[in-house]
Amino acid sequence: MEKFQTIKDIIFLPKKYYNGNSSPYAILKASGYFEWHDKINENDIFEVLTQHLECINQWLCFSADKRCCGWYFTEEKGKNIVGNYSSQGGYEQVIEFLDKIEACAAFIKREIEEIRDTEKEQERPQ
């Protein structure tokens, strides 16, 4: 699968998740991201996201619906926030962005890496 087609599939992850019966992990795996993960960066995601701005609100909803520890993306008082909420109950690595697209791209990369890493850990034999 081509790199930019993979990114396009990734940015539509929330829509696919809400419209289907697949987990975010399954959608991410089907996108080809696992093969491309080290070659896809925030700038690549930003470039594709600028062509599909409707996806930004989907990612905001996806983040809000998580209700657990991990990466989040939100708008607060005109600022676009990407941060990490730890399982110990504290906020870590809070980053403010002026550009909503840039914030969304940063969140997407962090979120998909967390999904990839979390599932990779679960697949290891105990």
Description of the molecule:
The protein has 126 residues and is α+β, with helices and mostly antiparallel strands. It has helices at 3-11, 13-19, 24-31, 33-36, 42-49, 54-66, 100-123; strands spanning 70-76, 79-85, 91-97. A hairpin with a 5-residue loop joins strand 2 (79-85) and strand 3 (91-97). The model has no long low-confidence stretch (mean pLDDT 90).
List keywords for this structure.
single chain; 126 residues; 17% strand; globular; 7 helices; alpha+beta
SSE arrangement:
Layout: H1 3-11, H2 13-19, H3 24-31, H4 33-36, H5 42-49, H6 54-66, E1 70-76, E2 79-85, E3 91-97, H7 100-123
Q: What pattern of helices and strands is seen along the backbone?
A: HHHHHHEEEH
Strand order of the largest sheet: 1-2-3
- Uncertain runs: none
The strand count comes to: 3
- Please state the average pLDDT score: 90
Q: How helix-rich are the residues, as a percent range?
A: 55-70%
Concise account of the structure shown:
The protein has 126 residues and is an alpha+beta fold. Helix content is 58%, strand content 17%.
